[in-house]
């Protein structure tokens, strides 16, 4: 291992995009787990990270500390160390933990031995305003004052006494005319303080901790190269892109292509890398808008999770690994400590005897009850197995328990992991399932699994796949929006998605890659109760078969596919996590008006939309509702215009429910407010009911016609034409309203009038050339007026 100076000397002097590290820092040995998710600049010193951790866990910096990486390197203030260490102020976080998945330990107070595990969850480019202060974006459970309590055992005793409601009785001391209370121990003093402050062990507020962290100055390591996202070991991975219908290349979610070292060890991006803002970019680039869907309640979804044998086997295995406890003498401190877990072989597998126990005691046989359900036959078969590696019933739950954090390995023992959910806690169980099963399926659907193996080194193949949209992921979104009970025809979907890719060997190879990707993704979802499949089962390793055997026609996945309600809920939870709007019918009663208006456009029926509006109005007064809806109509961009299109239906319901007349007063005031969007929406509504406000701006109706066409003009000529022709057979369509006012639309003063009028002219030309000419003339006037 080199020194921090040597590591810095090996770096290029080229300027790089500043980056931030997302870290999960957990306090070991505490149950329930206590952890913090922190975002810090990549180039801070480890000494500065020490300051951040101190605040994050409520420490007072009264004792010595040290960091230790996985190769045994120790970092601490040299003046405090009794053994040789690297100076923590000369070591940058990005040098010691350069990539996603890297880990190290941080120990505070060598008497109490507070051990913190630090894991890198993601490395991202710093956005504007990021990287100046540490942030907390998640965590679990509060930390009481714990200095000098005796380590995790003392903390556990304190919390147990607090939970039991034990009240220490003080001794009253009188001396020199003064009187005060003294307690038998520091723990008693802390316990009394917890009652006084109303301490809630389950409470934790990331925003409050972030406010505290803003007071922590950060120190940067001298000469540190501020790495960009996707860099690892001095190499920068090329971005993956896909070509969408607009003809341009867009970045594929997940950023960098997985790299492979010379020793074959892949640097696969983690789920937190995949599910970041680039996923939102994909939605914007492909103009994807998810429809509102119906979802069962939490209890029903949790019940579906419990019915999934594979996932629950991983959960039970985690609890089984944490089920064995025994005490041992800690010679250094002279205290009794608790240890436990299950013993592993040098290869990191359960010892055969323990693996057989796990099959029975954790009921792993429930994964395949037809094959393993008979107790006598199962016992006889297990007795013949001499290696856990040959025990197929253990393989899958063991792999998933490790990857999900349900099991953690420390030295040669397996313990219950920090992410292990309580089997009786619906919310915790559902959240764990969403992060594990649904998350893994999304990750598979965004990366060709075959490229992580022998095919990964074929550069032309990577270039070819960069031209292909993420069809399997887009298939999941298509299945998400299907009405309940309907199926997706898989072959038809992929055939349409590959239009434009020329016939030949390249197309056949892409088809084979899609076969493998679909099989892996759909199989994972099906295994965990998130999807159903019918029809042709895709062959395994289709891409390798085609590559080495050659020939054959283009082969695409076949059969039918659909998400279960559980699968839909899991996909939605992960999309919402990265800021993708995914409305649920009946869930917006407490939402703000902007969210309501944004969601209504995606509702599958007017009945559902009306019911949602009714529920939203029931949670507030009519006057407040009117103010909120009008305020939500501001802005001049296409998304704002799309939101304003839904305002009339909500305001009509508000007016119908109003018994005070205050709603009309709100609209009149807003109509003359000169606030772009808000004033126009209010004025338009007053015209609808035949009561325009005195002093309303002229050309308001023309403004709203231009505004209503804006989002469809952005979507393309065909979408705009369909919008113009929509409407009642015996009433005015948007096309008719545009024709009536075509010569005056430019007078509205809408900031997008020129481009919208030009788009309208193109859209109506096949329908009415004279009207197209009038609109083209109006577009010219709008441009001149601007």
UniProtKB/TrEMBL annotation:
<dbReference type="InterPro" id="IPR024047">
    <property type="entry name" value="MM3350-like_sf"/>
</dbReference>
<dbReference type="InterPro" id="IPR012912">
    <property type="entry name" value="Plasmid_pRiA4b_Orf3-like"/>
</dbReference>
<protein>
    <submittedName>
        <fullName>Plasmid pRiA4b ORF-3 family protein</fullName>
    </submittedName>
</protein>
<feature type="domain" description="Plasmid pRiA4b Orf3-like">
    <location>
        <begin position="20"/>
        <end position="206"/>
    </location>
</feature>
<dbReference type="Pfam" id="PF07929">
    <property type="entry name" value="PRiA4_ORF3"/>
</dbReference>
């Amino acid at each position: 291992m080199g020194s921090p100076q040597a590591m810095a000397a090996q770096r290029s002097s080229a300027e790089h995009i500043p980056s931030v590290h997302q870290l999960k820092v957990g306090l070991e040995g505490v149950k329930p787990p206590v952890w913090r998710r922190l975002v810090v600049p990549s180039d801070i010193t480890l000494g500065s990270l020490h300051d951040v951790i101190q605040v994050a866990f409520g420490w007072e910096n009264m004792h010595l500390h040290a960091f230790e990486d996985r190769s045994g390197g120790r970092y601490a203030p040299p003046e405090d160390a009794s053994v040789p260490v690297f100076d923590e102020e000369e070591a940058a976080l990005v040098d010691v933990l350069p990539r996603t998945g890297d880990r190290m330990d941080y120990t505070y107070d060598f008497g109490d031995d507070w051990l913190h595990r630090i894991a890198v969850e993601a490395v991202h480019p710093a956005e504007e305003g990021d990287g100046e202060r540490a942030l907390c974006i998640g965590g679990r459970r509060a930390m009481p004052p714990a200095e000098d309590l005796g380590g995790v055992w003392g903390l556990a005793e304190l919390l147990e006494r607090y939970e039991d409601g034990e009240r220490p009785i003080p001794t009253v001391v009188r001396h020199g005319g003064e009187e005060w209370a003294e307690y038998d121990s520091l723990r008693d003093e802390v316990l009394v303080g917890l009652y006084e402050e109303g301490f809630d062990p389950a409470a934790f507020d990331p925003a409050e901790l972030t406010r505290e962290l803003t007071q922590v100055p950060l120190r940067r390591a001298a000469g540190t190269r501020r790495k960009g996202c996707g860099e690892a070991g001095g190499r920068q991975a090329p971005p993956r892109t896909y070509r969408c219908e607009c003809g341009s290349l867009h970045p594929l979610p997940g950023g960098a292509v997985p790299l492979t070292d010379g020793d074959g060890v892949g640097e696969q991006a983690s789920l937190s890398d995949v599910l970041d803002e680039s996923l939102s970019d994909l939605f914007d680039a492909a103009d994807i808008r998810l429809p509102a869907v119906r979802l069962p309640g939490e209890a029903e979804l949790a019940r579906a999770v419990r019915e999934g044998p594979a996932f629950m086997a991983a959960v039970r295995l985690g609890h089984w690994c944490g089920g064995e406890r025994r005490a041992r003498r800690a010679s250094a401190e002279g205290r009794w400590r608790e240890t436990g877990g299950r013993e592993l072989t040098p290869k990191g597998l359960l010892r055969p005897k323990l693996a057989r126990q796990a099959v029975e005691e954790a009921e792993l046989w429930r994964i395949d009850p037809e094959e393993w359900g008979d107790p006598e036959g199962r016992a006889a078969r297990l007795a013949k197995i001499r290696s856990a590696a040959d025990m197929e019933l253990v393989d899958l739950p063991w792999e998933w328990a490790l990857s999900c954090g349900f099991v953690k390995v420390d030295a040669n023992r397996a313990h219950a992991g920090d992410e292990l959910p309580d089997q009786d806690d619906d919310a915790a169980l559902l959240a764990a399932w969403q992060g594990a099963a649904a998350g893994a399926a999304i990750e598979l659907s965004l990366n060709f699994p075959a490229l992580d193996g022998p095919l990964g080194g074929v550069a032309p193949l990577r270039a070819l796949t960069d031209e292909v949209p993420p069809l399997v992921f887009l298939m999941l979104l298509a299945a998400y929006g299907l009405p309940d009970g309907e199926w997706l025809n898989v072959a038809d979907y992929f055939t349409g998605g590959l239009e434009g890719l020329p016939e030949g060997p390249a197309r056949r190879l892409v088809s084979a890659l899609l076969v493998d990707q679909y099989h892996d993704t759909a199989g994972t979802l099906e295994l965990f109760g998130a999807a159903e499949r019918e029809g042709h089962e895709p062959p395994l390793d289709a891409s390798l078969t085609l590559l080495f055997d050659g020939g054959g026609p283009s082969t695409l996945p076949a059969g039918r596919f659909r998400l279960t309600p559980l699968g839909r809920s899991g996909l939605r939870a992960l999309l919402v996590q990265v800021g993708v709007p995914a409305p649920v019918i009946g869930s917006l009663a407490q939402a703000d008006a902007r969210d309501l208006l944004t969601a209504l456009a995606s509702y599958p029926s007017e009945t559902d939309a009306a019911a949602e509006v009714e529920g939203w109005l029931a949670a507030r007064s009519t006057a407040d509702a009117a103010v909120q809806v009008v305020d939500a109509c501001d802005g001049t961009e296409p998304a704002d215009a799309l939101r304003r299109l839904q305002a009339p239906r909500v305001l009509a319901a508000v007016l119908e429910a109003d018994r005070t007349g205050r709603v009309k007063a709100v609209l009149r005031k807003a109509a003359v407010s000169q606030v772009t969007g808000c004033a126009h929406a209010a004025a338009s509504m007053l015209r609808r009911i035949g009561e325009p406000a005195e002093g309303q701006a002229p050309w308001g109706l023309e403004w709203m016609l231009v505004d209503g066409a804006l989002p469809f003009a952005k979507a393309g000529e065909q979408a705009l034409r369909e919008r113009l022709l929509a409407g009642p057979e015996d009433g005015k369509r948007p096309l008719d309203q545009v024709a009536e006012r075509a010569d005056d639309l430019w007078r509205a003063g809408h900031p997008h009038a020129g481009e919208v009028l030009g788009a309208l002219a193109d859209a109506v030309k096949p329908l009415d050339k004279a009207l197209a000419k009038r609109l083209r003339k109006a577009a010219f006037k709008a441009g001149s007026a601007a």
